[in-house]
Design a protein that fits this description.
The chain is of the alpha/beta class. It has a domain at 5-32 and 98-204: 3-Layer(aba) Sandwich (Ribosomal Protein L4, Chain: A). Helices cover 33% and strands 12% of the residues. It is built from seven helices and six strands, in the order ββαααβαβαβαβα. The chain has helices at residues 19-22, 28-41, 101-118, 134-144, 159-165, 181-186, 197-204, and strands spanning 5-9, 14-16, 121-124, 150-153, 171-174, 189-193. The chain has a six-stranded mixed β-sheet with strand order 2-1-3-6-4-5. α4 (134-144) crosses α5.
């Protein structure tokens, strides 16, 4: 199998991609597992409600046991009273879902390989942006046929390029170390700078 290639925006020719990463077998079940783990890791898990033991007041019976014609009650802090505690009170919890390192890398390779096989990945040189230019960034995207939502992977020091793309709608700019499987699944197109490409490939190997 020939090594996959990606078009180079703002220039001519193509860029050869790492076959071990961008031509890897796509494993949807691992991609799904990684996305779930990443989304769960973002959950704060701080929701909490009070049980009847935590609600203040209600030390005495609201009325005597017999003779009133009403059902017997022991406290006004029981769940059936307004202001009472919750029957199954929510408590803070963690939603962290463990994913093995090998499985996480396989999922990242699968997501990258999926973009390569569908032809939705392109490479751009930060040297094309001598100054921030949203007009130039929009022209590159529209001329290449890349569709939004678009994920741009660029180094933090490639400031002109990052500023050029950040004002475009449905475009997310991510550093190579911040790239997650969920971002690749969300994106219909992927744009990687030449300087960031080796770091992206290194993370997935």
């Amino acid at each position: 199998m020939a090594a996959p290639k990606a078009p180079k925006l703002g220039g001519t020719g193509t860029v050869t991609l790492d076959e071990a990463v961008f031509a890897a077998e796509v494993k949807p079940h691992l991609v799904h597992e990684a996305v779930r783990a990443e989304q769960n890791a973002r959950r704060a898990g701080t929701v909490a409600t009070k049980s009847r033991g935590l609600v203040s007041g209600g030390r005495a019976k609201p009325w005597r046991q017999k003779g009133t014609g009403r059902a017997r009650q022991g406290t006004i802090r029981a769940p059936q009273f307004t202001g009472g505690g919750h029957t199954f009170a929510k408590v803070p919890r963690q939603f962290i879902q463990k994913v093995n390192k090998k499985a996480a890398k396989t999922a990242l390779r699968s997501a990258l390989a999926s973009h390569a096989s569908e032809g939705t990945i392109a490479i751009v040189s930060a040297d094309s942006f001598t100054e921030p230019s949203t007009k130039l960034a929009r022209g590159l995207v529209e001329g290449s046929g890349l569709q939004a939502p678009l994920v741009v992977v660029a180094l933090h020091e490639e400031e002109n390029l990052r500023k050029s793309f950040r004002n475009l709608e449905r475009v997310a700019i991510i550093g190579p170390s911040e790239l997650e499987v969920s971002a690749l699944v969300w994106a219909r197109s992927l744009l990687v700078t030449e300087a960031a490409l080796p770091l992206v490939q290194g993370r997935a190997q």
